Amino acid sequence: MKNVILIFCLSLLTVLNAQVQQTHDSERLHLAHTGKILFLPSFENLNRIKESDFIREYTLTNTSDLSFVAFFDRPLTEYMAQLHPDIKQDSLFRKGNYQFALWIDGKEIYRSNLLPGAPQKKVQDTAIILHRPLISNVNGQGSWSESFWNRFMNNGGEEALKDGRHQLRMEIRPYVNGNHQVKTGPLMASGELILQVSRNPVIDIGKIALNIPAPYDGFPVSPEPFDTVKIKQLKGLVSEGVFKRINSIIVIHQGKLQIEEYFNGEDRNTLHDPRSVGKSFASTLMGIAIGRQFINSEDQKLGRFYDFKNYKNPRGKGEATIRDLLTMSSGFDGDDEDPDSPGNEEKMYPTDNWTGFALNLPYDPALKNKWHYFTAGTIVIGDILNRSVPGGLEKFAEEKLFSPLHIKNYRWEYTPQHIPNTAGGIRMNALDFAKYGQLYKNNGRWNRQQVIPKSWVKKTLTRQVRIQNRKEEYYSYLFWNKSFKVNNREIEAFYCAGNGGNYIIILKDRPIVIVITASAYGQTYAHSQVTRMLEDLILPAVVTP
Which residues contact 230 (CB under 8 A, 6 or more apart)? Predict the structure, then answer.
């Protein structure tokens, strides 16, 4: 027994000594580099970083990672307090943040006052070392520092970082927005890095082989020809990291499997999380429920399902309709694109009742018929379905949607009440997502069975609400609508879309369904790169003039 205790004590002493040594190493780095920004080729645990890990030159490719460590003489909050001594210290977090600036070859390319809120208040109050990723191709989740780099690339960085040798300079300052006036403080830290940029790889299509599709339940192989050169170029660009975190590309032509490609370790059996693509399934199940007369119509008022006297802000809510929620144009004060909105989805997830969160929100009739992206509204749709269909929503979806499509391997996420999460996240493989898209192309029929009422499909594939501040984009019953530009032509599509660059696309006037799964979650480039892929390569390859 004494030996066991001795071994335990020696092990504990070893761990404590290692932790003390790591603390001393961090302190030495801080003392040696106060006021400086140093760079690393990857994002590692700060306690493991050694002086020799910092880089002065770096080859930047499409698959490179890049992070930085900034060493300050005092925390951000102390800088902000000096800028605005009249603002209480506890309020500074809401009034200011870091200002980041990037210079290329002596020219300022991009300067950004980070929005209040990230990094967290504790970091701003205490941190004298800031270690963050700028580029994280493997593990990145679109954190505030990655978003800053992506904004830099979209606002001049792409043009400035042409292939070749460049000098990158980074600067960090404090800022405070007080009394409607932005004050910027002194330099907190700066640093430079020589970049050898190599971001335009030469794709040798002679070395690229396309996957030969095999039949899949519901999809025979298509004999239709397509431009193999463009798809090989696409495959090469994905492999080289020009298009990032793309997991699969599926093309269904006239109900048959034409193109099937996988990347990043996924295959036709992988259950993929498409995030908000799952919202569209809520619309589908609502249409089936209405068709089977478990719900009267999408014009039915919410007062039929809820006694709003039991909720906050009850006035007007009973007159809202299911259609309002399906088109994201209700009077509920929820907008996921506004972080300060009372109904922003990020404020819903920590609560123990998501439906209650939505129904307790403020209600403004002036918001009705004005599109605003309202995830919490899809939770209410799921709750209404769960209350209305026999056996509950999960059983209903299995019997009336997935079983007719022979979709057997899928996985729901759930709300705190264990109702299927109709906000998104239902997982299945790419080919089963393609079945779902083809079901709409078939006007709701599958294997001679009318799964979705034809009238519901028609309504869904009709523009319902215009999306403000977007050129010629519309919203339908939890489906999006816009046109893609291909060789001076516009090709209209209705589609499901989800965070990370996930899409199920139904071309309006062509017998084509396209599925793209991706995992660029939280990344600002996620959707724009899919548009490039579609307009430059996929659609030109499969759409005939």
Answer: 537, 538, 540, 541
Q: How confident is the model at residue 138 (pLDDT cuts 50, 70, 90)?
A: confident
Residue 140 pLDDT grade (very low, low, confident, very high; cuts 50, 70, 90): confident
Contacts of 12 (CB under 8 A, 6+ apart): none
Cβ neighbours of residue 17 under 8 Å, at least 6 residues apart?
none
Span 422-469, pLDDT tens digits: 999 899 999 999 999 999 999 999 999 999 999 999 999 999 999 999
- Indicate the DSSP class of residue 156: I
The residues, ordered by sequence, that sit 6+ positions from 500 with a Cβ below 8 Å of its Cβ are 245, 273, 274, 275, 518, 519, 520, 521, 522, 523, 526
Q: If you search the block for the tokens 């792409």, which residue do you land on? A: 158
CA–centroid distance for 437 within its chain: 21
Q: Pick the closest to residue 160 from 102, 244, 101, 237 (CA basis).
A: 102
DSSP element (H, E) containing 262: strand 256-262
For 53-116, give the DSSP string.
G-BSEEEE-TT--EEEEEE-SS-HHHHHHHH-TTS-HHHHTTTEEEEEEEEETTEEEEEEEPPT
**What phi, psi does 311 have (nearest 5°)?**
-125, 165
- Picking from 88, 54, 82, 51, the residue whose alpha carbon sits closest to that of residue 173 is 82
pLDDT for residue 12 is more than 60:
no
Using left for φ > 0, alpha for ψ between -120 and 50, and beta otherwise, residue 241 falls in: left
